[in-house]
Amino acid sequence: MLDERDDQVIMALRISPVPIKKYIGYRVVLAFALNIAYILAFIPLSGLTARSITIQVLPAAVLAGLFSIIVLSLMGAFASNKVKGLALMKAMGILMLGPLAAYFIESKWQILLGVLPSYWPAKAFWLMYEGQPYLLYLLAGFIYKILLLYWLYRKFQIKLARI
Predict the structure, then answer these.
(1) For residue 70, which of 110, 113, 119 has the smallest C-alpha distance?
(2) Can you tell me the distance from the alpha carbon of 68 to that of 147, in angstroms, rounded to the nearest whole number?
(3) What is the pTM of this model?
């Protein structure tokens, strides 16, 4: 989307019959669906479904799929060109370290890593895999990500209005 912004595609969409919101919605839904498909395809290939949790993984995959929308929203709200977008992508690498760190922290303090949106689906999956209760983590993750997406959407709308 940053390429399209730099190439003035967004400006061209303003005068086309396709509303910008529908175009952005298409991009968001495509990223979300591809992310979920990727997760569901590669979990069995990883050998982690030996305990027959394939269907149970779907809610965690949907929760993880929301991360792609968060990344798109972060890029749209805070990066104004490709260079800033690349810098932001580098900084977002920290979001992937949270679940990794949480895996090695055994105390209750690991919940502090919940500020990172990537923590919730990973934690739910680990608990699901171990046969422990995980629904609370799924619910907390969905609530947190929906609130975060709402805030980012509002930021993106403000930025889009200035283009």
Answers:
(1) 119
(2) 15
(3) 0.81
Q: Running DSSP on this structure, what letter comes out for residue 48?
A: G
- Which tokens sit at 158? 């403000």
Residue pointed to by tokens 């809610």: 59
In angstroms, what CA-CA distances link 5 with 1, 76, 79, 82?
Answer: 6, 9, 10, 9
Q: Which two tokens stand for residue 21?
A: 């919101």
- Mean pLDDT score across all residues of the chain: 83
Lowest-confidence pick of 5-9, 55-59, 114-118, 126-130: 5-9
The structure tokens 């979920």 sit at: 36
For 160, residues 6+ apart whose C-beta sits below 8 A from its C-beta are 10, 20, 76
Identify the CA nearest to 99 among candidates 71, 69, 127, 59. 127
